[in-house]
Write a structure and sequence with these properties.
Strand order of the largest sheet: 3-2-1-4
Bound molecules: zinc ion
Helix content: 40-55%
Strand content: 15-25%
Number of domains: 1
Largest sheet: 4 strands, mixed
CATH class: Alpha Beta
Length: about 150
C-alpha cells in the first residue's frame, strides 16, 4: 500500500497547490453549489454539456485540501466524457472511498482517483472527497442548484 500512500500525498499536494479547471464559467449550462457543513467545504461547479458530453467543467470556492484536490481530479477525469461515463465513474469512486473497491484491481479506470482510496478509513473525510462528485451528480441528473452532504 506504500505506492498508494505516495500517490495520495503527490495528488493531494499537487492538486491543492495548483487545482485544475479552477475558475468561474460565465456561459455554463449548469451551475450548482455543493456544501459539506461537517468540514465547511463549499464549492460552485460549472458544467457545459453538448450532445450528452461534458465539454467543459470548472469549479471555484474553498475547502480543505482533500475536497479541493478531489474536485480538481474529478474535473480532469470527467472532462470530455459522456454523462453516462461520468455517472459510472461517480459510482466507482463512491465504492472506492467507502472501501468497497480495490483501486489496484482496476487501476486503469481509477488513475489518480486511486489516491483517494485511503480516506475510506476516515468517514468524515469521505464527505470531503465525494462532495464534488455529489455536486456533479446533481448537475447532471437534476435541476437542483444546491447540494449538501448532510
Ligand atoms: Zn473537507
Amino acid at each position: 500500500m506504500t505506492a498508494l500512500r505516495e500517490l495520495y500525498q503527490e495528488v493531494i499536494l499537487d492538486h491543492n497547490k495548483s487545482p485544475r479547471n479552477y475558475r468561474r464559467m460565465e456561459d455554463a449550462d449548469r451551475k450548482i453549489d455543493g456544501y459539506n457543513p461537517l468540514c465547511g467545504d463549499h464549492f460552485t461547479l460549472f458544467v457545459k454539456i453538448d450532445k450528452g458530453i461534458i465539454v467543459d467543467i470548472s469549479f471555484d470556492g474553498a475547502g480543505c485540501a482533500i475536497s479541493k484536490a478531489s474536485a480538481s481530479v474529478m474535473s480532469a477525469a470527467v472532462k470530455g466524457k459522456t454523462i453516462e461515463e461520468a455517472e459510472k465513474l461517480f459510482k466507482k469512486f463512491h465504492s472506492l472511498v467507502k472501501g468497497e473497491a480495490d483501486p489496484l484491481e482496476d487501476f486503469e479506470t481509477f488513475g489518480k482517483l486511486a489516491a483517494f482510496s485511503g480516506v475510506s478509513e476516515y468517514p468524515a473525510r469521505v464527505k470531503c472527497a465525494t462532495l464534488a462528485w455529489h455536486t456533479l451528480h446533481s448537475a447532471l441528473t437534476s435541476k437542483e442548484f444546491r447540494v449538501s452532504t448532510e
